[in-house]
Amino acid sequence: MALIGVAIVALAGFSSAETPDDYEDKGTFYSMTCRFIYAPSDCNDTADTVEWDFGDGSTAAGKIVDHTYSETGVYYVKQTATNTIGTSVAWYKVEILGYPVISYYVNGTLVKTVQQDAYGVAAKNSGIDGVSAWYTDRGMTSAYDMSSYVTRSLSLYGSSSNTPAPAESQVTVTFMDSEGNVVKTVSVDQGSRLSVSDLKDMVGKDKGMILGFYTDSEFTTVFNVAKSIDSDVTVYVKYGSDAGTDDYIVIGLAVAGIVALIVAAVTRHPIVILAAVALFAAAGIHYFGVI
Questions:
Q1: Residue pLDDT, tens place only, 123-149
Q2: Same domain, 145 and 189
Q3: Do 29 and 96 meet the contact criterion of CB atoms below 8 Å apart?
Q4: N or C, where is the chain less crowded by C-beta within 10 Å?
Q5: Strands 182-189 and 170-176: what pairing?
Q6: The pTM is what?
């Protein structure tokens, strides 16, 4: 379990809709469960009541509370402390990474990844035969104690006369909206591309149609959905509710182009055909920022 000190700590064993401008970053935690501890900087400012909003729709009250997140991600936690003098509000940012993952390499080849069931417990059995000892470095000079507690993801190295078959590595693509909420996560084979089904089921309530996919939350760099995915990546989904003037210009040009194309198909008039092509070209040029 992760302790958060306010204090915050991981307990052995996605994103807030409201993002504050001023918060204290408490860091990352290899756990799903955290303990939140009310810790005033001034002992004279002791609160009578302390309420917590964990940023995932859950709340609790108390000076020491435990909370388990259902998904990994960044959360903004709101602490409201009240006494006879008044009320004080503080915000804390936590990033929940999930339980640690151990990557096992045999003869220099990744053969297996194992995710722990909890934070701060001994490493799970790798199930790999023929390896007598594991090491924390590729040169295999620093032995790893398999009974020690695992508090973060790590790589372990071993040797064997028989090299096991390489593991099929997968990477995670996390789709988020402009408010930092996780819309969808998909796992794909490393080096493969996203499929059509990977891009489905992401229409949010009251968000409108999907206008595009981007590498940043400001929607300045388009994400190429056709490129191969080699590592974990976060993709930001732009919805109709996020649209600005430029987006409506592009949509208007595209719609006009479609209408002109239909008319051209009926009349087969060369000028109408040229007009349709010009409208589509203008939409594309404007979309990619040339005009």
A1: 988 888 889 899 999 899 999 999 999
A2: no
A3: yes
A4: C
A5: antiparallel
A6: 0.50
